[in-house]
Amino acid sequence: MLAFCKTQFNCMLKTSLKSGIPVSVSLAESLQPESANPIVPDGKKRVFRIACYAVAIAACVSVIAKLLIILIDFVTQLFFYGRFSIAAVSPADNMLGLWVILIPAVGGILVGLMAYYGSGAIRGHGIPEAMEQILTNQSKIKPAITYLKPLSSAITIGTGGPFGAEGPIIATGGALGSTLGQILNITHNERKILLSCGATAGMSAIFGSPVAAIFLAIELLLFEFSPRSIIPVALACITGAAGHHLLFGASPVFAIHGNINPPGNTALLCYSLIGLITGVLSAGVTRAVYYIEDLFSKLPVHWMWWPAIGGLAVGITGYFFPDTLGVGYDNIINVLNSALTLRAVALLFVFKFISWSVALGSGTSGGTLAPLLTIGGAAGFLLGSWVSSAFPSAEISVSLAALAGMSAMFAGASRALLTSIIFALETTGTSAALPALLAACTAAYLVSFFLMENTIMTEKIARRGIKTPDSFEPDLLQELTVNDVAGEQGFVINQDVSVKEAREWIKQHPEDKSNHFIITDGDNAFAGIISSSNLFGMQHDEAVPISSLIRRSPVAVHMSGTLKTALELMIRENVDVLPVISENGDIAGILSHQHIVDAYKTDLTRSQQQKQVISVRRRALRMLVRGQQLITTIKKQKD
User: How far is residue 431 from each of residues 238, 271, 419, measured CA to CA in Å?
Assistant: First the structure.
């Protein structure tokens, strides 16, 4: 029987696959008609397609941004001045007296009703809600948000809410991109890209800051950096910036009229200290907002009425300090240009914080960026004024200190470091401020990292059990090739061998038993792969050829391919193992899911391993010995 099996198994080849088994003259040719090659989608065409959608979305969002500003001005004119007009006006100049207290409360009532009967998703400041949909709901946002969010925000801000227009337009643009992504036949990752395109195009359209908007997408929305995502987002942001120049003008939003000179070393140290203090303030501001939100959740009234209660606080604050009402972009410009007295800036810092934190904590529809910029700018102005008077030799600029505080507050509260720096540069047009901004924002980021587990953008969704990615690391699956981890041992069986013959031969040679077996045809071309459990299954007729056990079309992976390609092929074909094909068409090994897991395990172990590569003590001893040898040699030469 053994001799018979050996005769029959002349085509059953057992060997080490280290050098590869020539299965056919050109295995690649034999694999193509059998659909054994991995199907690689034309990714570049899809990127181009998504990029075209991104430009269209950005153009629409730019128009929506302009309409939002017009609507805010209309509501402001109507409620504070009783006029049907869309001319830009500040609610701070109203002459209503005590009646001004009721107007933000009325706006809160309207927003509460819209949230209750329309969609509760309009509550909040936009970015956390977008992040939540990206992380948990495949970037699917209700289409109703595209009109409910701008309408509710216009009512909130137009009736005196202390918010900027950027938060609502970011949420609206994201909802528009998501809605289009739900209509089109695309993947959820592509829908995430369209959502990010709409959101960042909105920011770029409001502020004219395309580069900062790109970094905002990377740091807070995309959680990745790749050509498939950065190309559409960049095009959307450029389109949004073009829309800003066309509809709002080309001048910087927060132009600084005086000259900003590059800081010296002493001044740079002062800006770093301002950043550290602002970082502490950003942590306090974040905790205060969510503390107030927790207090509102304990009120014995329905959440629908919370915005009205918050509106009363806004109205009371606005009565005593009217500059806290509305968008407040003029406040930022005045602070940056030192157009306010020290007392006025101090009052702005206190009352803006009170008004905004209570309003945002009440769950109304608003944003965080403009208020954070106002509070941070005021803090930087106050700190810079003190340093300038106490240490005049430091030669710091109060305007630059205000700008550093403004960007540092946003960097500390959101931990969007690069966004904060570039945003300040783009919106003011002061490139000389870069060293001071880098110092202040990095210092604020450092403090925030150690003082806060979450940020003002992630705390809300973290409380719901949603983990937000906080690091960008290389994908191990794209770093390693199949050849790096594939197993070198395998077993090849001719497809004409019967199930019984294969079982008996393997039983007689237990040292050759494997979890998977490669099957070849009469021409030694790759035909498929079967598992050991399938081969020894009791339901099979032992007389049938082993080729009848092959359940699917043959698939294989090239040894030069990445592990990501191999894993995608395993998932698509629902297989646990793939034969590895060399460049000349030979079978070079076998790749299983366990090999991929082992690669991750090895990488994790290496990354956590602490090892001293250079021993200073050992090197010092070597130098001492060499010195002694050199001295001995010199003495011998003298003797």
Answer: 20, 16, 15
Q: How far apart (Å, rounded) are the C-alpha atoms in residues 235 and 199?
A: 13
User: What is the pTM assigned to this prediction?
Assistant: 0.80
362: closest CA among 413, 298, 426?
Answer: 298
**564-589, pLDDT tens digit by residue?**
888 888 888 777 778 787 776 667 77
8 A C-beta contact, residue 11 and residue 496: yes
Q: Is 15 helix (H, G, I), strand (E, B) or coil?
A: strand
CA distance 364 to 124: 6
| Residue 49 confidence (pLDDT) above 90 | yes
C-alpha separations of 443 from 280, 408, 449 in Å: 10, 8, 10
Return mean pLDDT, the chain: 83
How many angstroms separate the CA atoms of 47 and 192, rounded?
Answer: 13
Helices 188-207 and 227-247 sit at what angle, rounded to 10 degrees? Answer: 30
How many C-beta atoms surround the C-beta of residue 288 within 10 A?
16
CA distance to 126, 177, 325, per residue, from 203 (Å):
12, 14, 21
Q: What is the pLDDT of residue 512?
A: 60
Instruction: Express the helix, strand and coil content of the chain in percent, nearest 5 each.
Output: 65, 5, 30
> pLDDT band at residue 260, thresholds of 50, 70 and 90?
confident
Distances 343 to 88, 262, 369, 399 between C-alpha atoms, Å? 27, 28, 24, 16
Tell which wins on pLDDT, 617 or 166.
166
